[in-house]
Every structure is written in C-alpha cells, then in structure tokens.
Amino acid sequence: MSAPTQQSDATPASDPQAVDLDAQRSLKGLPFWANPRFGLLVVIAALVVVFSSLRSSFLDTGLTLVPMQQDLSVFLVVGLAQLSVLSLGHMNLAVPRMAAISAFAMGWCYQHLSMPLALGLLVGLVVGAAVGALAGWIITATGVNSFIVTLALDFALVGLVSLLYSHVGDGVAFPVHPAGMTTLRNDTFSDYCTGNVCGPPVPLIVLFALAAAVLVAVLFRLSRIGREILMTGSNLTAARLSGIPTSRRVIQAHALSGALAALAGFLLAINSGAFSADIGNSFLLPSFLGPVLGGTLLSGGAVSVLGTLLGATLTEVIQTGLNLLNFSVQDLNIYIGLVLLVALSLDRVRHVLAERRGTRA
Amino acid sequence: MTFIAEKLIKVFPGVRALDQATLRLEPGTVHALLGENGAGKSTLIKVVTGVYQPDGGRLLSTAGDGTLAEVSFSGPLDAQRAGIGVVHQERNLVPAFSVAENIALQAVPKRRGFVDHHAMRDLARRCLERLDVQLDVDRLVGELSVAQMQLVEIAKALAVDSTVLLLDEPTASLTADESDRLYDVVRSLRDQGQSVVLVSHKLEEVFAVADTVTVLRDGRSVAEAQPLANYSRDDVVTLMVGRAHADLHLETRKIDNQSQPALELDDVSTSLGHHGISLHVQPGEILGLYGLVGAGRSELARAILGLDAITGGALRIHGAPAHIGSVSQALQRYRLGYVTENRKEEGVFLDQTIARNVSVTVWRRLARAGLVRNKDERVLVDRYRDQLGMRISSPLQLAGQLSGGNQQKVSLAKWLAADCQILVIDEPTVGIDVRTKAAFHELIVGLADSGIAILLISSDLPEMITLADRIAVMSEYRIVGELDNDHRYEHTAHKVIRMIHAEVAS
After folding, report:
1. Of A7, A242, A243, the CB nearest to B405
2. Closest CA to B461 of B438, B502, B506, B494
C-alpha cells in the first residue's frame, strides 16, 4: 500500500515552501479580470461612453440622470429581493405580486386610515415579509421546489390583488398622496442647500435603496443568521447536521425577500405617483438580472450585493440608452433578454473556472 | 467461456482499492467472491463489468477459437457484449415497464425502427424458461415481489447472452425460502455451462452452493479460485480477516465503569426498525459499533441525534433522560456531535471557506449583537489547525480544495469547536490513505483521553480493533453481542465475525 499519493497531508510536514505557494495561489485567486464585478464596471463605462457620444442628452441631469437613479433604486431593491432567496439556491417568482399585495396594503392604509408615510411603509414591509414567510413555510413543510411554490403563489396573488383593488380599493389605484410622498418623488439632494453648498443631484429615494443594500450586505457578510442561510444554501444536509435550524433559515430568507419586494413596490409607487394594481408587473426579469449579472450563484451559497448594484446599473444604462436611441419596447426586450442569456452562460463559465482554480470568483 | 481478471490494480485518490487482485472464472462453476467490507469486492465487480477502467493488470477471455485473448471494456456496454452480465445489489429495473420490457431493455428487438413486441415477449419467455420461472411477461415490474424482481434481473442479464453472471448479494432482501429457490436457479444455470459469481456475506449459503472461492483482503486476492471443498468456514474467516497493517497498537485503556455513562441507550427502538438497543458509553471511552453495511448503525446515530424518532426505551445523557428533537438541540443542550460518514455530502461545505466550515457550529457563541467577526473565526481555525494537524494554506481556502483526510479533520474540528462531550464518529477513515488514517486514529484516541465519550461506527474491522475499548456488534437493526476489546486482532476479529455470521445464518 505504498502508492504515491498527491495528497498534501501524506507528505511530511517539513515542506513549508509548498504550503506557502499554495497559500499565495489561493489568496490571489482568479486574475482580476475574471472578477465579474470588474467586468461589469468596464461594460458599464463603455456603454456610458457610447451612449453619451451618440446622444449628448444621456448625461443630462434632469432628463436622464435623475430618472435613471430613481429607476435604479427600484431595480436594486428588486434584485436584492431575489438575491435573498438565491442565497439558498431558491427562486422567488412571486416577487412581482409580493410587491403588488404590499403596495395594496400601503395604499389602503394611506387612503382609509390616513396613516403617515413611514407607518404605512412599515405595514407594507410586514405584509411582504408575511407573504414571503408563507412561501418559505410551504417550501419547508412540503419539500416542493421553490420555483413551483412561488410560481403558484404568484398566480394566486395575481387574482387576489385584482380582486382586492376592485372590491376594497377604488378600481385600479389609490388616488391618495400621503404627506411627504411628493417630496420624495420630486426632490433631490441638490434642492437642499446650506449656504451656497447644495447636495448632489441624487433623488431622496436613493437613500432607501442604499440603506436596504447595506443592510442586506451586512446580514449576509457578518451576521450569524445570514451566514447560516448561506450555509443552508451551500449544502442543506450538512447544514442540518451541523445544527443549523434550516427550516427557520429558509423561512427567514423568504420573509426577507418578501419585505424587500414590498420596499421595491413602495419605491415604484413613489416614483410613479400612485399605489396601483400594476405595481410589480415589470419586476420579474430585473429581479434576476441584477444578482445574476453581479455574480450571485443560482446554485446558492454565495451572494454579491455590490454585484447586484452593478448588474442593476448595467440593465438600467442599457434600457435608458436604447430608449434615447428610439428603440421600440419590443427591441428593448429582445436586447435585455439576450444580455441575460449571455450573462447566465458567462456565469456558468466563470463558475467552472472558479472551481478549477479552487476559489470563489 | 473462461474469463480471467489478472493482477488488477485500481487506485482512487488516497486509496488502493485493488492491489493485484486476480479472479479466474471457469464455465460451469459457481464461484464465491468473499471479503470483508472494503476489501475491494465491489471495485473488482465494477472493473470486470466495465464500470471502472483498471489502472493495471488485464482482462482475458476465451475467444472464438478457444484461445485466451486480452479484452478491454470502455464501458458497461462493452462488458455486456463480451458476455458478462451483472445483477447489482440495488435494483435496476423500471417499475412502470412490463417484465418483458425490462428483460429486453438492453437488447430491444426492433422491426423497421419500432419495438417488436412479439419478439420481445418471446425473448423474455425464453430467458424466464431458462430460470424455470413462471411469470406473466406483461405484468408491470412494480407489481412484483422483491424475489420476483430479483429473478427478472437475472433474466435480464441472461437476455444479452451472458456467459458470466455476477450476483452481488442476491439474497440480501430475500427470505430463506426465496433464497433457496434462487440458489436452485443458480445451480441450474451452472449445469447449463454458465459461470456464476456469487458475492455474499452469508457464509452458510456460500458453502451450500459455491464450487470455488476467491477471497479478497485489502484489495489483494489471498485465495485465488480455490476449490471451496478444501476450506472450512473458519479457514475462510481467517483468510477474510487476515491481519491488516500494524499501524497503531494501543494498550487496553483504563475506563471507569462505575461512573455515570455519558450516553446510555436502554432498550431503545426507533421508527427505522431498531429493536431493544441497549448501549452505554462512559466519558473517555471509545465504544465501537461494528456491523455489515446496512446493519442499521448510521441509522441509529441519526435517531440518537433526533433526525429520526425514537419510539421506545430511554435515551439518557449523563444520567438524565434526554429527548432530542434536532441536531441543533443535541449540540446546544447535550453537547452531542455527529461526525458524519459521508463527508462530501454531509460533513463539509465544499464551496465554503475552511473558516466558515469550522465555525458553523459556534456562530451562536461567537456572535456579538448577532454579528460574527472574521477574526474570531480565524482564531478558531488556528487552534484546530495545530491540534488536528490540518494542512491548509489559509483559513480562506475552500474546503473542497482539501484532500479527503483534511476535509475529515475540518468536519471533526467543527464539533470540537462546539465543545462536545459526546461524539458519534461515523466511518472516520473511509477513502483515506494509510498514513493519514494512522494519524486520525491517534487523534481519536487523544480525544477519548481528554474525556470525550466516543461512539465509533466503522465497517473497518482492523480500525475497530485498534481503537475501541469495547465493541458492540449490530446486525439487522439489533445488537447481537458485545465484547471487551483486548486489541489482539485475530482473537477479537474471529469473535466479532462469528457474532455476525451466527446471526445471519440463524
């Protein structure tokens, strides 16, 4: 049994140099160009140059930059909603309708209870989290794939939302404008000056999206619960056998997804000026685009909040740019679909590359 | 057809599964292939049937003109074409297909591109006739009994004109009557000139039906195609057991049997089918739980950890009755950890860093205001890197990059980090090379010396006799005996194997 083995633990421990080389290799990991975040930055920069040279209005603050930031805020949060369950290797196809039902709840509270803006938002977040938790609970209790469960849930909610608007609401939207809604919608920090110094032309609602992003990043990077969610996504059996309450973590991740969907619904309502039945309709594709472009694995166990921000930015840049170049809506969809396909394929290539190098990209 | 597998070598990362094993098959014989768990039987079968390619040695088979010619199989289909049929231990039938469809699965008769149902039924009937079995070929396989399925599998192997038929534990799930019936079939196949290879742990049956025997031990054939009549049962057991490597010899350790047992099972039965299980492990003691694969040992561990229900009897930890509902409860409340058998699927998170793998059980303790600091994790990894001799380049290395032995150490480290008082260690050294194995053995003994109570599950008898203070033998979900281990290999191995085979035979 004296087979020569390639295993490092079979060689005597008197070979520190080999270990050091190993260490260097694994710490350096992939070359910087293989990092998906870097690639995204390059593509975004290139597109900005192309679009702004074709249409100078692309860099116009009021016409393009502010609306872009408003849209981006929504899509960043939508992406984070999907990222929360991608961490488990799950999907949440009900992101659109979780946003819709929460938007209904918020609109109803403002309309009929005359709640202040913040309190209504809180109600919306709770409703979103509750619906998300329900999805998570069904998944853990039945063992049915999250794809199926959330698809079915989304379908059920489509009916429920339109029913609620036609019976309890006033048709398709709440006409209410709670105090502060218009300010949030129209103001940027440049409207607030101390002396001669005004803030940057950044819309106020960007703050909400950034706060959500920081919170989610801290959760998955530093907190025990976030880490345990990632471990559950990495290997469910091993997680259970390591004493992680996996069912609870699954439910929590889905609840977070629901709450973020609700926040996205709120932000879209602010942007569009009404809590209406069609909130969330456009959320499904962008929810995957951001995280996946940014390097979050569909297989679970790893997420990237920064990547999601960049991914959402890229989508937004493409959309605005093509819009300015007078592409029709259909063309737009074709291009965005193509971008997603290419990105997904690249994600796979990168994953294989990373596995071969033994590092996470 | 004479078929010879000569001096086969098959190396897996870290283990030499086959080391010059030779199997010589003559037509018209029933050939028993014997060996303890892990001796290389399954690997040998997989090489002979083309599932694995050998790293050394050659396969010879009688060619058309009666001379021996070398053959090589690039896949199972090649082996089939060369006349080698196999019935694996696990069922390989399609339940929703009929008997005829299953039998003809590998050689579907076709006419103009469509399945020729008539020819298919004929083929199936012919094959079943050779076995002297009456069975409606149009019945769905899903409706058949286990024994009938077994026969359909054999018929399926015959359908591809196999002249060598390998049966891997064919009676494992059959009753005594059904087994007798099966062996009648085997004898009749032999009389038709087939060469039948029988892999079985049931020595009684082997002696009743086989003509020649090959015994494997540590990947080597220690008896090659010998007439079985020359051997007694004890001779065969001695050959199977042999003496593996003398890597670590332990003196009998002093265990305080008067103290409160750390873990005690009293007449426990489980939802998985265990009955009357009584065990106790003292602090600092290693209790070995030995048995054949499928005896219910890992399942018992799962029940102790609350993954499956304990339906009767009492589980006591440090003397107090314990009701464990989940692994997390076992860990938090009872300081009971489970180092799993299957490290790649259940033990480590391959795509996570070592730091996270080691600290996953203690985030609850490390967290301040719900947040875990990376520095605390590093400290933990450094501690166990030294204590367990883990060879890693950085705490941020992914666990999947490590060798099997180091992965196992990571898996162990997370339970040590959790400060466990009781450890269930399941097959700690499967697929680990000999040197690392010895280091691991020292490690386990060191843990016991430090006062941890260890329930060691292993199918590796030399390992068991090296490490355990006492050995409990399990068979068919019951404890069939318990003995003090004197670390004298031949002596103890004989006793243990007799316990198992006495049980199986009865």
Report:
1. A7
2. B494
Q: What is the pLDDT of residues A85-111, one digit of tens each?
A: 999 999 999 999 999 999 999 999 999
- Ranges for all domains in chain B classified under CATH 3.40.50.300: 3-241, 244-335+420-506
With CB atoms and an 8 Å threshold, state whether B372 touches A223: yes
Q: Is residue A118 within 8 Å of residue A295, measured between CB atoms?
A: no
C-alpha–C-alpha distance, residues A39 and A24, integer Å: 23
Q: Note the pLDDT tens digit of each residue in B39-71.
A: 788 889 989 988 888 888 899 888 767 788 888
Collect all residues of chain A within an 8 Å Cβ-Cβ radius of residue B350. Answer: 234-235
What homologous superfamily does CATH list for B3-241?
P-loop containing nucleotide triphosphate hydrolases (3.40.50.300)
Distance, CA of A264 to CA of B144 (rounded, Å): 56
Cα A8 to chain centroid, rounded: 41
Tokens describing residue A280: 């969330």
In chain A, where the domains are located: 67-283+301-306
Residues of A near B (CB-CB distance < 8 A)?
1, 3, 5-10, 13, 19-20, 22-23, 25-27, 218, 222-225, 227-228, 230-231, 234-235, 237-245, 301-302, 355, 358-360
**How far, in Å, CA of A204 to CA of A206, rounded?**
5
Count, residues in chain B: 506
Per CB-CB distance under 8 Å, the chain A contacts of B398 are 26, 358-360
DSSP H or E stretch at residue B457: strand B453-457
Which among A10, A13, A23 has the least Cβ separation from residue B433?
A10
Does the beta-carbon distance from B435 to A10 stay under 8 Å? yes
Going by pLDDT thresholds of 50, 70 and 90, the confidence category of residue B405 is: confident
Q: Model confidence over B144-180: pLDDT tens digits?
A: 887 888 889 888 888 887 889 999 888 766 777 778 8
Tokens of B489: 């290999």
CA distance B90 to B107: 21
The CATH class of B244-335+420-506 is: alpha beta
Record: contact B389-A7, CB cut-off 8 A: no
Question: CA A338 from chain center: how many Å?
Answer: 20
CB contact under 8 A, B328 and A245: yes
Look at B403 and A9 and tell me if their CB atoms are within 8 Å: yes
Cα B19 from Cα B45, distance rounded (Å): 14
| B13 has a pLDDT exceeding 70 | no
Mean pLDDT, residues B451-474:
89
**A67-70 contact pairs (CB < 8 A, 24+):** A67/A320, A68/A316, A68/A317, A68/A320, A69/A202, A69/A203, A69/A206, A70/A203, A70/A205, A70/A206, A70/A271
> Chain A residue closest to B404 (CA)?
A7
> Is residue B243 within 8 angstroms of chain A, CB to CB?
no
CB within 8 Å: A302 and B370: no
When pLDDT is cut at 50, 70 and 90, the band that residue B14 belongs to is low
pLDDT for the residue numbered A358: 45
Shortest distance between the Cα of A298 and any Cα of chain B, in A, equals: 14
